[in-house]
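Entry, Tuesday afternoon. Goal for today is a structural model of the target with zinc ion bound, before we commit to ordering more compound. Inputs were pasted exactly as handed over by J.K., no edits. I checked the ligand SMILES twice against the vendor sheet because last time a stereocentre got dropped in transcription.
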Amino acid sequence: MGKTSKAKQSKILRQGSKKAETLSKKISPNTKNLPDHHFKLVKVKRGLDGLGLFAGEDIKKGEIIIEYIGTILNKEEAEKVTTSMYLFEVNRNKTIDGSVRWNIARYANHACDPEGNAESDIKKGRVFIKAIKNIKEGDEILYDYGEEFVKEYIAPKGCRCRAVKHDYGAKGHVSK
Ligand SMILES: [Zn+2]
């Protein structure tokens, strides 16, 4: 995790949580019993690739499921992190290192188009996982991680999603 101290991390967590809570109540007032970066009930259990994130209730297309949270890094700090698979580049000078335990969104696995039922949505410097299809309780929540990640981490071991053709970026679509 580089040089970010525990104290700094918890400060970031508190700030992030407060904002997420406000937004959460605005968007979905019935979620007050959920952890504050959760907008919908989710479960973590064995999924497509290791642990996965599952819908704990029916989720409608367009609804926000969960916020992707973590330690906020600037460009310089992000460049020093070479061990995390959970870096999410929000913009040129803001990267979220989502490898922290309290970022439940990190459990959502990748799926190639059109097998995903969610997408990552950047809003005002924050990252939300949003449903792009109606999702039934018990379904695994899957979204396209993007070309760069797929090329680096998924293509070498082979994608496990149910797509007939996997999108391995530069190499183009490759069949199973
Ligand atoms: Zn795939």
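The radius of gyration is 16 Å.
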